[in-house]
């Protein structure tokens, strides 16, 4: 399933679906309210999709996040109801790409559901870099936090997801916002993790944002919604408002990482000035320019 942003093509690659504790992911939002968005199972878990995105520019294949991967042990698979390995590499094959065709992997942050597929255990049980020719882009402060976790943050990380990247020389640590090429850039938001980064694509006056866990699903549009894992929820709140405002103003596309049914859409303000998500079907090309159209607000 692909989407066009100017000259840039974006493919949705569904890696997996897992189930996670609803209280943990809805934070301060009480159950009578979050249960409007999702129906929990008997263990109080709700489903989250794991959506990765491949951004294709003229010269580069750029992956946003690497999914769950295949390294989760039996205990974690039970906790998160993960039934099979992440499908990211198979999904890439469906669009004619092998792992070695990926040039850049942008990790929004290093939690196991975003970085798990960065490395793979092969048939002999050897840990390998999944995308052997790619440069993996990670914010330096997030790297420091993930490699020195504390009692609160430890549960979100699996060191074998990311330590091999450094050993193999595939890791590039970033100190803030970064242009990957003229169309694709990363923007540090913080919030969910100390230096969580989002991805922005711009081409021919069209824009798209990949907000990572600042906006995991459309249920998180209300500013106060954040996961209980967020280290700096007030930073998440401000970052989210900025991403939503910019996406709405430019009639851009938003590519959500954990939305199950319709993860790609536009953002519009309703009559109460609340932002709402308007899913967009694949291959529906956004209007080329809003320049000559009357301004709505
Ligand atoms: Zn996360």
List the helices and strands and how they pair.
Layout: E1 2-5, E2 8-21, H1 22-26, H2 31-34, E3 45-56, E4 61-64, H3 74-79, H4 88-94, E5 104-106, H5 112-115, E6 119-121, E7 127-129, E8 135-139, H6 140-147, H7 163-167, E9 171-174, E10 178-179, E11 184-188, E12 197-203, E13 206-210, H8 233-249, E14 253-255, E15 264-269, E16 275-279
The structure holds zinc ion.
Bound molecules: zinc ion
- Spatial extent as radius of gyration: 18 Å
Structural class: alpha+beta
Overall tally of domains: 1
Which residue ranges are poorly predicted, with pLDDT under 50 across at least 5 consecutive positions? 285-297
Describe this structure in words.
There is one protein chain. This protein has helices spanning 22-26, 31-34, 74-79, 88-94, 112-115, 140-147, 163-167, 233-249; strands at 2-5, 8-21, 45-56, 61-64, 104-106, 119-121, 127-129, 135-139, 171-174, 178-179, 184-188, 197-203, 206-210, 253-255, 264-269, 275-279. By secondary structure, the chain is α+β, with helices and mostly antiparallel strands. The strands form three sheets. It has a seven-stranded mixed β-sheet with strand order 1-2-3-4-5-8-9. The site of zinc ion (ZN) has 5 residues, from loops.
List keywords for this structure.
binds zinc ion, about 300 residues, 7-stranded mixed beta sheet, Metallo-beta-lactamase, Chain A, disordered C terminus, alpha+beta, 16 strands
């Amino acid at each position: 399933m692909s989407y066009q942003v100017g000259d840039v093509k974006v493919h949705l690659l569904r890696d997996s679906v897992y189930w996670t504790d609803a209280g943990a992911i809805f934070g301060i939002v009480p159950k009578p309210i979050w249960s409007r968005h999702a129906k929990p199972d008997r263990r109080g878990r709700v489903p989250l999709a794991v959506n990765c995105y491949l951004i294709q520019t003229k010269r580069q294949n750029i992956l946003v996040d690497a999914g769950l991967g295949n390294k989760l042990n039996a205990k974690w698979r039970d906790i998160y109801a993960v039934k099979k390995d992440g499908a990211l590499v198979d999904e890439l094959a469906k669009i004619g790409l092998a792992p070695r065709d990926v040039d850049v992997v942008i990790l929004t942050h290093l939690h196991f559901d975003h970085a798990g597929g960065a490395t793979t255990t092969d048939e002999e049980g050897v840990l390998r870099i999944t995308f052997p020719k790619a440069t993996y882009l990670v914010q330096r402060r997030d790297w420091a936090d993930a490699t020195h976790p504390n009692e609160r943050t430890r549960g979100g990380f699996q060191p074998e997801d990311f330590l091999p990247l450094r050993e193999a020389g595939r890791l590039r640590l970033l100190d803030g916002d970064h242009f990957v090429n003229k169309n694709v850039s990363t923007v540090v938001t913080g919030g969910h993790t100390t230096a969580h980064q989002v991805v922005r694509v711009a081409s021919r006056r069209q824009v798209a944002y990949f907000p990572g866990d600042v906006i995991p699903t459309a249920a998180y549009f209300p500013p106060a919604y954040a996961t209980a894992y967020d280290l700096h929820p007030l930073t998440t709140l401000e970052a989210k408002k900025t991403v939503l405002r910019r996406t709405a103003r430019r009639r851009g596309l938003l590519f959500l990482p954990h939305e199950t049914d319709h993860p790609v859409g536009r953002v519009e303000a309703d009559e109460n000035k609340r932002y709402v998500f308007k899913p967009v079907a694949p291959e529906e090309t956004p209007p080329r320019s809003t320049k000559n159209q009357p301004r709505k607000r």
